[in-house]
Write a structure and sequence with these properties.
By secondary structure, the chain is of the alpha/beta class. 26% of the residues lie in helices and 20% in strands. The protein contains 12 helices and 14 strands. It has a 9-stranded mixed β-sheet. A hairpin with a 2-residue loop joins strand 8 and strand 9. Helix 10 runs parallel beside helix 11. The longest helix has 14 residues. The chain is elongated, with a radius of gyration of 23 Å.
């Protein structure tokens, strides 16, 4: 299921509190940052806030710049991004500004919530019932596959941010820190208590915006089991990029691989024909850089642009066997091996039969195939 890129956006004070602290709302951002947020909105396909934020802040969620709206229209996009909210109960105020400004709006709710909202909201608001519960993966799947949303900006509130980050569904966190102290013990925090993905997030940008500081982080910890996380997608993209570094070949695929520990630490990476070895495979090259007794391998994930080979003539052991012998129990791939060199290759099945959690993310197949286009029949190259 293809999910949009999920960007969490929030402003906090130096003591970690959000800026919705009461009826006289404290604005932590300044004019420069408000303009930055407007730019991020204009670059998004949809903007999402939780029902609690609608009730407390009554936001409009508009792109305020006429120039940015005109640029969206010139690019063939709606003047405003899709506005989205989520409410399990359906307890929404039909007079809220959210419904009466901007362009299209969608509400995700339960079956009971949909009954409550029937005929309540203004005409044109789409109400999507997701069953007895509202699951975030279902929301993101519908946004991506049905609504065509590729980039989703999430502006809160704290409960929504918490759930998306805890479930490994946030691709990026944009955090603005303001030079103020709120000092109120009951003021809301950006994230609530609970279990979060392990390890440290990666800082990808820091810059001043007026008198506040913007920090952009991306997650690094792999998902678990059969469920893909935002970090899984990022690491698989890295593996596909490594495939493009392979020396060209007419007799072997170009493949990239990355091995990542459970806490998000990159352990090793490799690509086909690395180091001048004409027959080395990507997973083989990466695993060779680690000691066979490395305890981190048991909880690691191997990301490979092509499913690990199940049979090969150039080495005694195929990559699927090397992965099993290393003790790795989770593999994420982008592309099933075609019959170009080996008929009915099925490394994924070999791994799964041995108890390994194997995920195939076909949305990255085109990227994995790109450096191998010369080896494929014309009908499969697109």
């Amino acid at each position: 299921m293809a999910h949009p890129y999920v960007l969490l956006s929030a402003a906090v004070s130096l003591d970690g509190f959000l800026d919705d602290t009461g009826p006289e709302r404290l604005l932590l951002s300044g004019p420069e940052d408000f303009d930055r947020v407007d730019e991020v909105r204009a670059d998004s396909d949809a903007i999402l806030v939780g029902a609690g934020t609608l009730r407390t802040d009554n936001p409009r969620l508009l792109v305020n710049s006429a120039e940015r709206r005109a640029a969206r229209v010139a690019a063939g996009l709606p003047e405003y991004p899709l506005k989205v909210t989520v409410s399990a109960s359906g307890d929404l105020d039909p007079d809220a500004r959210f419904w009466h400004t901007g362009g299209a709006k969608t509400v995700y709710t339960t079956d009971k919530g949909a009954e409550r909202l029937h005929g309540l909201l203004p005409a044109g608001v789409e109400v999507v019932a997701l069953g007895p519960d509202v699951e975030w993966r279902a929301v993101l799947g519908h946004l991506g596959e049905v609504k065509g949303v590729r980039r989703l900006m999430v502006e809160g509130g704290g409960r929504v941010h918490t759930q998306l980050l805890q479930q490994g569904l946030a691709d990026e966190l944009q955090l603005v820190v303001a030079p103020l102290f709120v000092g109120e013990a009951e003021a809301p925090r950006m994230f609530g208590p609970g279990a979060y993905p392990p390890g440290r997030m990666r800082l990808v940008e820091t810059r001043p915006v007026g008198d506040v500081v913007l920090m952009r982080y991306v997650p690094t910890a792999p998902g678990t089991g059969q469920r893909a996380s935002a970090a899984d997608r990022r690491w698989l993209e890295t593996a596909c990029e490594l495939a493009a570094q392979c020396p060209p070949s007419e007799t072997a695929f170009s493949v990239g691989a990355v091995i990542v520990a459970a806490d998000g630490t990159e352990l090793a990476r490799g690509h086909s024909r690395e180091g001048g070895d004409p027959v080395v495979h990507a997973e083989e090259a990466a695993l060779a850089k680690l000691g066979p007794a490395d305890p981190r391998l048991a909880g690691a994930t191997v990301y490979s642009s092509l499913e690990p080979c199940a049979r090969r003539a150039s080495r005694p052991a195929p990559c699927a066997r090397l992965i099993l012998d290393a003790g790795v129990r989770r593999v994420v791939t982008a592309w099933r091996e075609p019959d170009t060199f080996v008929q009915s290759a099925d490394g994924n099945a070999l791994l799964a039969a041995a108890g390994v959690d194997v995920l195939l993310l076909p949305e990255y197949e085109a990227c994995a195939m790109a450096p191998n286009a010369h080896l494929l029949p014309p009908a499969t190259r697109s």
